[in-house]
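Two proteins follow. First one:
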Amino acid sequence: MTLKYPKLDIADPDSIQRFAKSVEAEHASVDVLINNAGVNLDMQYSPVNVKTTLDTNYRGTLNVSTFSGRFYKLEMTTNEANRCRVVNVSSTGSSLSGYSKEIQDRFRSPTMTLNDLEQMMTEYQLKGRRFRYDSASRTSLA
């Protein structure tokens, strides 16, 4: 087994494209992708830092997974040999313990869809720090 550590900035769409092209050129598929990227800018709360946090921790991870899906073996299959493992590593800074019970329940919902998650991230971007605690005044995004 050979481990590779290609350069990738998940907050940069151009870096994601370069990464995908280099992996495609060298390999037919990816067996395991380990994502250890993330930022925690909560101590310097501002609209810019909220956007940076979402661009890295949410959108970047999503973009790497979806853009690169064409060479990940992500199709639903019962054959273990045809599966790709995506491992996302995070720190204790990503704990849900600082959020209201309602927000925790929304994150943990077994029926959550990608659209539900996108709505939560949009609410977070609009509300910033208040998103953690202000469960009574959810923003309507309709």
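Second one, unrelated to the first:
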Amino acid sequence: MPAKKDNAPKKPNAAKIVEDKTFGMKNKKGSTAKKTIAHIQSQAASAKTPEQKRKEAEKAQREKEKAASEAAKRETADLFKPVQVQKVPFGVDPKTVVCIFYKQGNCEKGKRCKFSHDLAVERRGEKKNLYQDTREGGEEEERKKDDMADWDEDKLRQVVLSKHGNPKTTTEK
């Protein structure tokens, strides 16, 4: 015949129960009560099993190593990275030029960058120069060759009328 099962309630694991040893003391006034509460809470926080302490120490060690390796990577990148400066020709708005560092994915200035971080800016057309004649050169050459000495009387009258207005249509008497 098998042994009877023990029907007595089992005590829960000590690790699962967190006993509040400061119960009833939290509402006390005075600095000595507050100091006692702080002392008891610090003891409860440090009362861990050796396995928990070992795991926390390993985790802290891994975080330190990770931070140190990242710092070393950043330092080597800063040391071996050539200093580059993006230049813009005189008279060109820097916001119409895409930041070369942003294109590479490492612009450190962010919103303070004077260059554009909009990749669509690169695809825009070039601005038109208002001060340059974009017409074909043949017409301009013709104008330079056309001199007053070669004009006949009809052409001369036509130019004078276009400059001074038609005297027959003026209202002055």
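SUMMARY FIELD: The longest helix spans residues 50-80. Helices lie at 31-46, 50-80, 100-104, 137-145, 153-164.
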